[in-house]
Amino acid sequence: MNAVDVSGLTVAYHKKPVLIDVKFSVPKGKLIGIVGPNGAGKSTLIKAILGLIPSTSGEVSIFNKKYSPKNKTVGYVPQRGSVDWDFPTNALDVVLMGRYGHLGWIKRPSKNDIHFAMECLEKVGMESYASRQISQLSGGQQQRVFLARALAQDAEVYFMDEPFVGVDAATEKAIIALLNELKELGKTVLVVHHDLQTVTEYFDWTLLLNRKAIKCGPTNEVFTLENLQQTYGGRLSFLERDQMLIQQ
Hints:
The chain is an alpha/beta fold. About 30% of the residues lie in helices and about 30% in strands. It has helices at about 40-50, 90-95, 110-125, 140-150, 170-185, 200, 220, 225-230, and strands spanning about 1-15, 15-25, 30-35, 55-60, 65, 75, 155-160, 190-195, 205-210, 210-220, 235-240, 245. The strands form three sheets. A six-stranded mixed beta sheet has the order 6-7-8-3-9-10, with helices on both faces. It has a four-stranded antiparallel beta sheet with strand order 2-1-4-5, with helices on one face. Strands 11-12 form a two-stranded antiparallel ribbon. Strand 11 (about 235-240) and strand 12 (about 245) form a beta hairpin. The chain is globular and about 50 Å long.
């Protein structure tokens, strides 16, 4: 059974297509990098899958069931820049927001919910910042709190929109360790990613996207010069002597 199936997904802004007939499937328990040039529609793809923006056509299934925003098996980490970090709340309250889908009609989190949220903060090294206002946190700390919120959702499939952007090396290392831990637990994680040089190190599956799905599959099969040139066009050069990829 695939964790995610996307078929014929098309998104247009002001009648201009942004995503065109996107089709791909990913199996359960994989760490998938969504890779493509600026303007390729990577963030739009995640938002359209989750129903956060309207699509012109297409279907999305999670574990062979049509996706609904009420689906408790799906977690989401948005781009850090899209969040109002001046909102007056602390780190623990942000993480507890991830428990709301499990509370049913009971809106107040229980002691167990608070304990679980603290465990999630501990996993990302932020337990000592639980009462800190989010506006007082660094960029890397804010990203860790958002990851903890996703963990609190206790989902089976996670969508993360550029979690490595604007974080320091220590936070990036902590994030990839957490993603690998999720994968080992059988979770499926799809990550919008921009750094080509770390794709083969970080992800066991890759979706190459440029308005259309160019290729999707195991990274060692998909992440090839031919496929990358098809994805990036003239904006990519390959330096064979160093085996490095540089975007131009």
